[in-house]
Specification:
heterodimer; A: 540 residues; 6-stranded mixed sheet; 16 helices; 33% helix; globular; B: 371 residues; mainly alpha; abc type-2 transporter like fold; 2 domains; 4-stranded mixed sheet; 4 strands
Chain lengths: 540, 371
């Protein structure tokens, strides 16, 4: 009998079903990976298993059966839950030591020699031994996640549930977190359920559950899952029906006359969508209506600096954005990506340095006014009005840009068609998946046909297909409109789709190069994540 | 009950309160309210701007005018303009009281004939108007009595008025004890609501949900922090009332103290209820303030006696615990009957019932799971 058995678990939030009939099994010593987009039901299933959320169905853990949080109370001493969000379970004003004391007390642990040794080992393992008197609020994102992890591990749980422990954490800390989890699981023989948005991390898991729209669509090891879809993956080619091309590969249900390519885990999502909808709508952007002259360099930042009290968010950053270039701004949470974009947009005043936009030196608010019509911006949280339908939102923004009504309506229809959200025009943004909202936010930002487009974390939490479609859209915009794009992301893998990447770390620029050059510099790197880690090692 | 868990939670809360400096608010807010409102609310009316038009210009009318001139309640001015002009001034809000002494005022009185004095009072605020009218009548009667004294035979009835319990008719005595009832209703509720909602908002509530910590242990530790911190305020407020505002204390201090502690429990459980239904600290704060301050003021009996309320207001006043607490507190400060009065004992019992019922209900409604 397996140690953990989840049988037909359904979780509801009011009328909405978060996850339906989820079943799986796991044994001690296994890492089970939950993979899927935001809102696909990963967290809800974790909450049900951890006994913090009402559910339907049955869960069996080491002989204990439970159907609701009350019955789960008996096994809570064996469970360690780390919910989603950086430093979510931490108290910013308490020190590292006080955190461990607090978690020890609420878990009712005896402070004997064995405990003290274990505690010291945990602290040393995550590198917090020297920082025991530092308040949690003063730790970096990666450190906070490590502290959360050891607070969750202090009572030696038999069932460890980690909800996106690595999201937004820099690659070095991420690798360390994985090493810790791996060590603990082998030593203490525990079951670990871990959700992640990074496909690369799936390789480290013993078993993978793929989530989509509140259902588990596939189970197995990474190899098994890839095996399932191997026959549908080809090298990139032209195709017409029941197929989808992205990142040098074509996914097709019908056999094609080209060699097969090595599948990646994303392929499972693409193939699943193809099977379900037959066709994934192609993105198609029309030519610019008004041709305009664009200067060679559209944006130049020289020594841009932003301080918040004593904290330096951006430290003398130089950056150039050329005509028709996609520039990826990469970095972990808190590296200063958003602050930089906000300075470019004038949402934060510039403390030091010079900014030249479209050949014009920006010195005052007035300088920006004329440029507003040439810049488009998609913010991290998608600045849409929740009480207006998609159509009403688009019309409102068209009015703001003073586009004549008749022209605006035509344009909105064209964009809705080309960007594939035509059938959702009369829904409210809150009723739609993140991927649709994201594309429609881009539509809002390009209504007035800007020359520069800034996107702040448009892909975080979005499912694989929507992400692929967004990148296709950006490449088309670049080709057809000659638009320059500055995009921030914490997915290092997305660096591959950019023409050039800038990596920020703690407010400083550490890399500024093309992906090709970087691969040449580090020939044995498998992906961009490796490059970042190697770069980091080289520096130290 | 697990003392280890409770101790850890209390230590955590206290550490956070001190490091976030919120502790200052815990002690500043009650003191600020008692100072601001204690000095700010005045029920008596002084320095009403008064204009007297004297058509008589006799000795008697001069005497009457000088009575007004020497009263702290009136800032008197004798005018020579027309009645219309002065009535206009009242309209503009520049004059509060206008008195007309008619011609032949003295002559008619000496002859024993009836005479009339014209009095106009700005009653746009009815309470103020009534109070000023009362003062004017009193002043005139007073003058008449002085006059009658000279005629011994007619001096048959004099009014001997005594104000009980607040002999000096001081506003402080009437207001400050009531303020204690408002403060101890508002402040503990805010703190207890915030302590729980803060964990919900930041997500640290998961530490409670996902650990074996029991619901009772969690609630005991969350509620005992505001309970103990605000217990100190019972003494601080007492000192402000007796030393700064010089309110007499005639009752039993033990009764004052124990009633206040029970009253704090009621306030805490209101905070607990609010923390169950709200998710963010700002909403919890606003909800607590609305739920506590408004009834705290309206049904406290400070502004309006509850016996003069009618219909639903009367019922509402009896639903909120403020009224029962205030009754005992006013008794402790001004009267001093304590538990020898049956009403006080009943009200004390009602307060204990409220505390018990609300805490039990709050504990039942609180769930150890996400909603």
């Amino acid at each position: 009998m397996p140690d953990l058995e989840v049988k037909k678990v359904t979780v509801r939030y009011k009328e909405k079903i978060a996850i339906k009939d989820a079943s799986f099994e796991a044994n001690s010593g296994e890492i089970v990976g939950f993979i899927g987009a935001d809102g696909s039901g990963k967290s809800s299933l974790m909450h049900a298993i951890a006994g913090v959320k009402k559910f339907e169905g049955e869960i069996l853990f080491k002989g204990h059966i439970y159907h609701n949080p009350k019955e789960a109370e008996r096994i809570k001493q064996h469970i360690g839950l780390m919910p989603q969000g950086i430093g979510l379970v931490l108290y910013p004003l308490l020190t590292v030591k006080e955190h461990l004391d607090f978690f020890t007390a609420i878990r009712n642990l005896k402070k004997d020699d064995e405990y003290l040794q274990y505690r010291e080992r945990l602290l040393k393992m995550v590198g917090l031994f020297e920082f025991q008197n530092r308040q949690a609020g003063h730790l970096s994102g990666g450190m906070q996640q490590k502290l959360s992890l050891i607070c969750t591990l202090i009572h030696k749980p038999k069932l460890l549930i980690l909800d996106e422990p690595t999201t937004g954490v820099d690659p070095v800390s991420r690798r360390e977190l994985w090493q810790i989890i791996d060590e603990i699981r082998k030593k203490d023989n525990i079951i670990a359920l871990i959700s992640t948005g990074y496909m690369q991390e799936a390789e480290r898991m013993d078993k993978i559950l793929l989530f989509e729209n509140g259902q588990i669509i596939a189970k197995g090891t990474a190899e098994e899952l890839k095996e399932l879809v191997k026959n549908y993956v080809y090298l990139e080619t032209e195709c017409k029906e029941e197929c989808f091309s992205f990142a040098k590969r074509t996914y097709s249900l019908k056999p094609l006359n080209v060699p097969h390519a090595d599948p990646e885990l994303e392929a499972v999502f693409f193939i699943n969508a193809l099977k379900k909808y037959k066709n994934i709508p192609e993105i198609n952007v029309e030519e610019r209506e008004i041709k305009i002259e664009i200067p060679e360099v559209v944006m130049e930042a020289i020594g841009l600096t932003k301080r918040f009290n004593n904290f330096i968010a951006n430290d003398h950053i130089d950056m150039v954005l050329k005509r028709g270039e996609i520039l990826g701004l990469l970095g972990a949470n808190g590296a200063g990506k958003t602050t930089f974009i906000k300075m470019l947009l004038g949402l934060h005043p510039i403390d030091e340095g010079q900014l030249i936009l479209l050949g014009k030196k920006i010195e005052s608010y007035k300088d920006r006014l004329e440029l507003k019509s040439k810049i488009g911006y998609v913010s991290q949280k998608f600045a849409l009005y929740k009480d207006m339908t998609i159509r009403e939102n688009l019309i409102y923004f068209a009015n703001m840009h003073q586009i004549p009504m008749s022209k605006a309506l035509k344009k909105i229809d064209k964009l809705a068609d080309g960007l594939g959200f035509k059938e959702y025009m009369d829904y409210l943004p809150t009723e739609l998946p993140l991927g649709i909202n994201q594309r429609f936010s881009v539509a809002v930002a390009i209504l007035h046909e800007p020359v520069i487009l800034f996107l702040d974390e448009p892909t975080s939490g979005v499912d694989a297909i929507a992400r692929a479609q967004l990148w296709k859209l950006l490449h088309q915009l670049k080709q057809k409109w000659g638009i320059s794009i500055l995009i921030t992301t914490h997915y290092m893998s997305e660096a591959e789709y950019c023409d050039r990447v800038v990596v920020l770390k703690q407010g400083k620029k550490i890399i500024d190069d093309t992906p090709q050059n970087l691969y040449q510099k580090f020939p044995d790197a498998k992906n961009f994540e490796d490059i970042f880690i190697k770069f980091h090692e080289e520096k130290n | 009950m697990n003392t280890g868990i409770i101790k850890a939670y209390i230590l955590k809360e206290i550490t956070e309160l001190f490091r976030s400096k919120f502790i200052i608010m815990v002690y500043l807010l009650p003191t600020m309210i008692i100072l601001l409102f204690g000095y700010g609310i005045r029920l008596e009316v002084t320095h009403s701007r008064t204009v007297i038009l004297d058509y008589d210009k006799s000795k008697l009318s001069k005497d009457l005018i000088s009575k007004f001139e020497h009263s702290k309640y009136f800032d008197t001015k004798v005018s020579n303009t027309t009645e219309d002009n002065i009535l206009n001034e009242i309209k503009k809000g520049k004059v509060d009281v206008f008195i007309i002494i008619p011609e032949n005022f003295e002559k008619r009185i000496l002859k024993g004939q009836k005479t009339e004095i014209g009095v106009f009072v700005d009653s746009s605020l009815p309470m103020r108007g009534t109070i000023m009218q009362g003062y004017v009548e009193g002043e005139i009667l007073n003058a008449a009595q002085d006059y009658i004294k000279n005629i011994p035979i007619r001096n048959l009835i004099t009014i001997n008025n005594r104000n009980l319990f607040n002999q000096s008719m001081r506003d402080e005595n009437a207001i400050v004890p009531g303020l204690i009832g408002i403060i101890l209703f508002v402040a503990p509720a805010i703190l207890s609501a915030l302590l729980i909602v803060k964990e919900k908002e930041t997500g640290t509530i998961f530490n409670f949900y996902s650990s074996p910590v029991g619901k009772f242990d969690f609630l005991i530790s969350k509620l005992s922090v505001p309970f103990f911190l605000h217990s100190i305020n019972i003494f601080i407020l007492f000192l402000w009332a007796t030393y700064l505002f010089q309110v007499p204390f005639r009752g039993n201090f033990f009764i004052y103290w124990i009633t206040s502690e029970i009253y704090i429990l009621i306030s805490l459980s209101i905070g607990l209820f609010i923390s169950i239904i709200t998710r963010t600290q700002i909403v919890a704060l606003i909800a607590t303030v609305i739920v506590t301050i408004l009834p705290g003021f309206l049904y406290s009996g400070i502004i309006m006696p509850i016996s003069s309320m009618t219909g639903s207001a009367y019922i509402e006043a009896h639903l909120f615990p403020v009224m029962y607490f205030n009754h005992i507190i006013y008794d402790s400060f001004l009267i001093g009957q304590g538990f020898s009065s049956e009403k006080n004992v009943i009200y004390f019992g009602i307060l204990i019932f409220y505390a018990f019922a609300l805490l039990t209900l709050g504990t039942l409604f609180m769930k150890k799971e996400m909603r």
